Each structure stands twice: as structure tokens, then as C-alpha cells.
Amino acid sequence: MEQFTEQAYDWDECLDKIRSKYGENYRILHKKTIRLGGFLGLFTREGIEVTGYIPNRYGSGGLMSFAPPAVNGHAVTGNSGMPREPGVSREPGSLREPGSLREPLDFEEAKRRVLAAAGKDPAIQQVLTTVQEIKEKINQGPQGAPEEHPNLRRLRECFDLNDFSPAYRETIFSRIRKECSLETLEDFDALQDAALEMIGESIRIFQEKPPARPPRIMILVGPTGVGKTTTIAKLAAVYGLPNSGKKPLRVRMITIDSLRIGARSQIEAYGEIMGIPVAYVDNQEELRKTVALYSEGVDLILIDTFGKSPRDAVKLGEMKHILDACGSRAELHLAVMAATKTSDLQDILRQFEPFGYQSVIITKMDETIRMGNVISVMAEKGKSLSYITTGQTVPTDIQRADAAALLCGLEGFKVDRKKMEERFPVDKYDEIQWGR
Ligand SMILES: Nc1nc2c(ncn2[C@@H]2O[C@H](COP(=O)(O)OP(=O)(O)O)[C@@H](O)[C@H]2O)c(=O)[nH]1
Ligand SMILES: [Mg+2]
Q: How far is Cα 303 from Cα 286, in angstroms, rounded to an integer?
């Protein structure tokens, strides 16, 4: 095997030199850019230096490791012993004639060798790295996608500010990508309005319906300390006291919280102040009798329950058994605190699932500015909201759940209240039920 090194001002000139000296049967090993000519290092020009070799005429196994792939039955020679350089075209005369001395290689074997050689070539390595980077960016998805519109990024920050769950946020974002025009995307206010509408559509509001026959029975369940008793007192006052000139409903309160120290005096105190009777029961039979007793001449029965830890399955089972006395006509509302973290909220909803609650009351909304967690979990679990409580004061700090009001309370979003109120109007029946 004979090695050679040739220099020239460009690639063609260099190849001409090699061909004139060694003929067509050459292999190129290396090419580099060098400075040529000049005098004492001055006035040099850029040129190239090519190193290669002339394989033995009857090729040995060692040299076969650079052998090129067969193309259409022809082995490629000339500079093809090395992987081709980007931008360097193959010489037309470099295709080997059929019947040449070297046998064409098996294609798979040749592919393996070319890839092995590519692994050593820095230029090809760089191309492979770039391809890999592009692939990774595509696979990163919307989260880190560099092509995400700046307005979508800004909107994402608004979602995160409110503690929406990532799954909920991505559901809304995929709707935005599908449904919003480029014009909407370009206009942040329009984009925000579209997102708010989608959030609003995901909020289910519990629809109050007049009971087939009075009284309406409402039961509150939920963990200890969330504000069930206080909420019962607020509801009793809202429905049972004269309110905006409407005739009050005839309300009764029943508590199954009598086992808890202090529970009796708390609800009793509210009952006394409002002039609303309170009954205490601690088993199913007593509850059945009391409900039957109140079924004559009463419009609304509010039932307060003891709140054990949702992990206390025995106590919850006991409570469910007692409540069965009310039958299927009772409305069950689960009370949870607004500031509960997402995973706890999911746990509570699951633990109380056996009660078959129809709706959720969000308490202590005044203690958090972030409602995204509640909206996300309710939407994911398909639960509706009935009331929101906003402080300790009885009876003022309670409102009917209202999608527009919830949207207006979101942090960082600029909400057009009028537009959202028109889009998500409060149910007419709900309005009149604040009195008779
Ligand atoms: N900040 C705030 N505190 C509330 C609210 N509702 C109830 N509370 C307070 O939460 C505490 C527990 O309430 P309670 O009704 O006894 O909870 P229960 O154990 O679920 O019956 C009391 O101190 C209430 O005054 C509310 O909407 N906001
Ligand atoms: Mg209580």
C-alpha cells in the first residue's frame, strides 16, 4: 500500500493532481484546510491538503475495512473509501467498472462499515448530534417547545399563578391549539377571553330544583373543621330569615354532630339567635322519626354531620348508615376547604364517594387567592359546585356558586365581568330561592 499527501488551492485541483499521479484507484483518508504560498508567513492563501493511499491491487482483508458499499452492482471508488464530505460531489469517473478486482460487498455489511466509519468522522458526528437535538426538541412536546407562541407562554403563567393542575391546563391548551385562530393567538386579550370561556365551561354549577314534594332536605358532609356547621347556620339564615323582601322558608336544623364536644352549643346558639329549631339525633331511627316529624309544614331541613377524618372509614360508614334514613330524596353536599392542596382534594372526594354526594361546597375561599386547584379537580372528577363560603360571619359570608364570579376571582387574568356574566348567567331558580 502506498500513501500520499497532496496540496492544492482547491479540491478539484487537488483531485486532478492525485489522478495524474496515481490514476483512479486511490482512497482518501483525510482532508484539511491549510495556508499555502506567501513569503515569511505573509500573503498566504487558503488551500487544502489531502492524505490518502493506493490500495494493493489484490486488496488485503485490512484494506477491506474501508471498502465502499456496492451501488447498483458497482463498487464506488475514488474518494469513496471515506464517508463523503458534505458539499463535495462524487466524481463522475469514480464509479468502478463492472468486473473490477474488488468484489462488491454485501449491502448490510457495507452499511455497518459506513456507519462505523461515520462514528469516527467529526463532521458526520456533528450532523448526527444536530439531528438528535432536533429530534429531542420535537419530542419535548408543548412544555418546552421553542416554537410555542409568546402569548401562549404568557397564558401558561396565568394558569400557573392560580395553581391549576398541569393536566387541566394542558386540556385547555390543547383546546386552544385546536379551536383558536392565529388572529386570536396574536391578540392576548382575545386569547385570554377564549381561555376564560373554556375554564367557565368546565365549571359545573349545581342546579337547584324544587323538590317533588316539600321539604327539601340538604345534608352536609365533609372533613372536620372545614366549616360545615357554620355553613349550615348560614344556609338556615339565608333561607329562613326575611331576605330582600322575600317570604322566608320554614327551616329546621338537625345535627348528628352531638357526639362532638361543643357541637351542640355551637348549633344551638345559632338556632336560638335565628329562632330556628334544632333537633339532635345520634342514630338512624331517630333521624327517620325527626325527618318524618318535620315533613309537615316545613320547607327546608338542613342536616349537619360530624366530621371525622376522611381516613376514618368506620366512622364514615356509620354516618352513611344513619343518613340512609333520609332516603334518596335528600341532597348531599360535600364541604371542602378552598386551600386544600390538589392531591388531598382528590383524596377527600374519593373517600366521600360512597355517600353519593351531588355537589361540593367550597369553604374558606377568603383564605386563598388560588382557585385553580379546586376548579381543576372538580372538572376532572365531573363534580358540580353549589355554594362558596367566604368568611366566618353568619349569614353574610356565603354565596351561590357562580362560574362568572369564580372567573373574576382568578389571579393574573384580566376578566371582562359583564361578558362573563352574560356568558355564564346565574340560574333563575337559584335567584328566587334565596327567599320565597
Ligand atoms: N375564614 C373562614 N373561616 C370559616 C369559614 N367557615 C367556617 N369557618 C371557621 O372554621 C372553623 C370551623 O368551622 P365549623 O363550622 O365548626 O367546621 P365543621 O367542623 O366542619 O363543622 C370555625 O372557626 C369557623 O368560624 C369561612 O368561610 N372562612
Ligand atoms: Mg361541625
A: 13
- Tell how far the Cα of 262 is from the centroid of ligand 2, in angstroms: 9
Q: Going by CA atoms, what residue is nearest to atom 10 of ligand 1?
A: 227
What's the 293 CA to ligand 2 centre distance in angstroms?
23
Indicate if ligand 1 lies below 6 Å from the C-beta of 226: yes
Name the H helices within 95-227. 107-120, 122-139, 150-161, 166-179, 182-186, 188-202
Percentage of the chain exceeding pLDDT 70: 71
- Name the closest ligand to CA 228: 1
Question: For residue 145, is pLDDT > 70?
Answer: no
Nearest by Cα to 227 from 350, 345, 346, 391: 391
CA 338 – ligand 1 centroid, Å:
12
How does pLDDT run across 352-394, given as a tens digit for each residue?
999 999 999 999 999 998 999 999 999 999 999 999 999 999 9
For 275-302, write each residue's pLDDT tens digit. Answer: 999 999 988 999 999 999 998 899 999 9
The answer to whether 236 and 298 are in contact (CB under 8 A) is no
Please answer whether residues 249 and 436 qualify as being in contact, where contact means their C-beta atoms are separated by less than 8 angstroms: yes
DSSP string, 211-230: -SSSPEEEEEE-STTSSHHH
Q: Could you say which ligand is closest to the alpha carbon of residue 397?
A: 1
Number of Cβ atoms within 10 Å of the Cβ of 35 = 11
Burial of 89 (0-12, 13-18, 19+ CB in 10 A): exposed
